[in-house]
Every structure is written in structure tokens, then in C-alpha cells.
Amino acid sequence: MAETRPQLLPLPAQPADLPWPTREWPRAELDSRVDRAALERLLDHAFGQPEPDDLERTNAVLIVQRGAIVAERYREGVDVDRAFISWSMAKSITSCLIGILVREGKLDISQPIPVSEWPVGDRRRRITIDQMLRMTDGLRFREAEHLGDGSVRYYPDDESDVIPMLFGAGKDDVAGFAATLPYQVEPDERWNYNSGASNLLSRLVRDTVGGGEDEMRAFMRRELFDRIGMKTADPRFDGAGNFVGSSHCYCSARDFARFGYLYLRNGIWDGEALLPPGWVDYARTPTAQSDGLYGAHFWVVPGSLGLFYCSGAFGQRILISPKLDLVVVRLGVTAPHKVAAVVRYCKELIDAFRPTAA
Question: Distance of alpha carbon 287 from its chain centroid, rounded?
Fold first, then answer.
């Protein structure tokens, strides 16, 4: 697998006396080492009126530490069960579904991904599931340039592959559109952000489960959403019955936090392993070709907190810190060229909890 081998921080176990948040999230007071006033200022800024120029609209901020909600705020008019679009945080959900099938012995990520549109002898038939998850597949996909400050520069509509896939000619069969992507370089030669790969992986899950869209929906609910209490989860499908696994799953902030918490707890929920041993470590192990910033459909932040996270357009985030036993969810609508402000803001939220690392 194309990955570096850093020393990963251990993932914290569930406190013995704490209920799992399957039905309700436990609540707790802030750790006394957190500067409450500083945290309140950060929340006040995000939800100020008029909306701040840097972050623009924030719909929700939710912070879970040691398994309990310690801070939570919503935009005026938004209640706790309001579901918001994931955008590319759906990629991490797709990766999770692959992991569930690996646990069941139905997929092997070292094997080539079967894509029926690719004829025998096509060079693309060598691309493995792992390379798709790590976005080192070698296919051409023109989506966005991820800049060093965290902001994103998308290709113009007339040059983009993601726009026609999600909103144009490919929208009724996103995986079929992705299957037309041409070979560009050898697999593992480079890293390239590829939402088309995510939709091919999502179709692979559906085909492995069998039974089309109905069985895919049932599988997602039975094996993931219901197991961890994600009652608001609403995955969207295209006309061909594909879960749009690159981009389209609606959830409340609390349910996005449940997903992050599953990964913080090493794929274990209420004593049961939903994911195979080592899967969370696999997801958060950096891919070398990404300059150490991307794992297997999860982003990675090098540093002492062990941060890894789900990221979606317009500033959606689920941030996970093993060192701080922390999950932070931020949902909102921030222009792509301003997303660097969301990166800084989330860093400030997490930094407020750094004193608890001791």
C-alpha cells in the first residue's frame, strides 16, 4: 500500500462508566483546564449577526470530549435534528462501508476494483481498491486544487469533471460517468483528489451487497446508521441506484459526531467491532504521495494530537483527536476561497482543549 508509516497515537477506549451515545449523547461540564471564556468567544464569533466575513454562515458547532457533549451551538432557527449535506465527508462514510465489507470477508482492498465498463486488457483494470481509497489510482479527474492554507480552488465549470458528474451529464449515473475517466499515469505514481473514485467505490459496495438500491439502503442502515444511532442519516442516490458516495449524505451535527466517535473508538461500538482490526489505523495512515496529508478517504493533520478528519466543501468538518479524546463537528456554508478561515477556526477550537492533553 502506498503509505508512510508514522507512529500513530493510540485510540482511547470508551470510559467504563459512560453509556454509548446510541440513543442520546451524554453531557458533561467542560474540563476545568479549558478556558471557558475563550471558547465562548469563539462560538460567539461563529454565530454572530451579521454573519462574520471570514467564516460566513455557521450552522452548527458540536464538541464531544471523553464521550460527552461539552459544547454545542446552532444558528438561529436550526434545531438539533436538522440534517445538513455532508459534501465530501460522504467519502469517509463510503470508506467505512468498504471496511464493513472487509470485516465480513467480502472485499479485499489489495485486489483490483472490478469496473465492468473497462474492457479486458485495459490498463485501468490494475487499479486496486486501496489505490482508489488513497486516491493514487492514476485516473484523470479534474476537481480542485487544495492549497497550503486549507482553501480550495476549483476548476472552472468548462474544465471540471466533478461538475458534470454531480450536476450535469453524469448526474443520473455518477459511477458510470466515473468509469469513463481516462488513464493518465501509473497507479501509485501521484496523488490526485478524485470524487469519481469514491463513486466507483460506492457502486462496488452496492454490487457486493447485491439487490440494488433497496438492499444498499438497508445495508447502510443495518450495518452502520442504526448500529450507532444515526437516526437522521439520509444518503442520496442517483437514477441508476448508486449512493452518491462522493458527496451526498445528510445528517445532523450529533449524527456526524457519532460517525466521528466510531472512528475515535477504533471502529468499536458498544462492545461490537463494526470495522475490522486495524481499519481505523489504515484510514488515518498518511499516503506518501499526498505529502502526508491524506489517508484512505480521511484527511490527516501531522502533529502531536494525532488529528484526522472528514472534510466537505464549504467548510464541513468532523475532526478527531485521539490525544484529546475529542470530536469536533463544524457545519456551515463558507465560500471555497475562504475555507482557510474555517481551518484556522477549527484549529482554535481544538487548541482550546490542548491543556487537557495532560
Answer: 16
Contact 112, 123 (CB under 8 A): no
Give the number of other Cβ atoms within 10 Å of residue 253's Cβ: 26
Q: How far apart are CA 249 and CA 177, in angstroms?
A: 19
Q: What's the CA gap between 226 and 204, in Å, rounded?
A: 22
Tell me which residue has cell 443520473.
Answer: 172
- In order of 12, 50, 175, the CA distances from 53 in angstroms are 37, 9, 37
Q: Scan for cell 434545531, then name that residue.
A: 79
Largest CA-CA distance found in the chain, in angstroms, rounded:
63
E-state strands within the chain: 57-65, 68-74, 84-85, 144-146, 152-154, 234-235, 249-251, 268-269, 272-273, 299-300, 308-312, 316-321, 326-333
What's the whole-model pTM score?
0.96
pLDDT per residue of the chain (358 residues) written in tens, 0 to 9: 445 456 899 999 999 999 999 999 999 999 999 999 999 999 999 999 999 999 999 999 999 999 999 999 999 999 999 999 999 999 999 999 999 999 999 999 999 999 999 999 999 999 999 999 999 999 999 887 776 676 667 777 778 899 999 999 999 999 999 999 999 999 999 999 999 999 999 999 999 999 999 999 999 999 999 999 999 999 999 999 999 999 999 999 999 999 999 999 999 999 999 999 999 999 999 999 999 999 999 999 999 999 999 999 999 999 999 999 999 999 999 999 999 999 999 999 999 999 999 6
